[in-house]
Amino acid sequence: MFSNAGVFDKTPRNGPKAFVSEYALTGEQAKYGTLLGAVSEAGFLIGLERNSDHVMMASYAPLFVNANDRQWNPDAIVFNSHEVYGTPSYWVQFMFRESNGATLLKSQFQTPHPDSVAASAMLWKNSQDQKTYFKIKVANVGKSPINVKISLKGIESSNVAKATKTVLTSANAFDENSFAYPKKIVPKRNPLKSASTEINDILAPVSLTVFDLLKINV
């Protein structure tokens, strides 16, 4: 699925708009809901964000599955008579929830790993604190950590306040959540040591990383 991140890049804009319905990675890489499958879906979603002038909607499917009556794998949410957990794919959807209503920013992405890394940048307003943030998402399906440098052009350092980094990853690309370990793979948010218009960081292998930088007016 990651390889389809650019499927709409060259689509003519004078035709019908697109609705990407019932997408998910299936098969050996996905199993019952692996980290690798979820990060692959994240790369695909980043591609949809880049083409949001053409792709109007997208829907992950299936959403729910009864663990005692599995008919399709993977699914976003697994339940039985008294328990429930979200698969890594659910948490990818959670991390993309602010995409609705956000403003996609013009960005350039240079990498020696175009087949395993995808990124997007946007400006969004948090409905809880009513503040505006720069959000940069980077999906890495590669097996190795990658050094990354992010530069915000046309923005002064004084316009950026606190910054956070949220990462979805695990020790093994084929790790899954379960009733026994429902939060084995969940997003973990930590503050960045310094908020600036330039960020130097390391992407974990097989991970979705989201950088949020508070935008302030001076």
From TrEMBL:
| Alpha-L-arabinofuranosidase C-terminal domain residues | 21-207
Q: Which GO terms describe its molecular function?
A: alpha-L-arabinofuranosidase activity
Q: Which GO terms describe its biological process?
A: L-arabinose metabolic process
Q: What is the protein's name according to its record?
A: Alpha-L-arabinofuranosidase C-terminal domain-containing protein
Species this protein is from: Phaseolus angularis (Azuki bean)
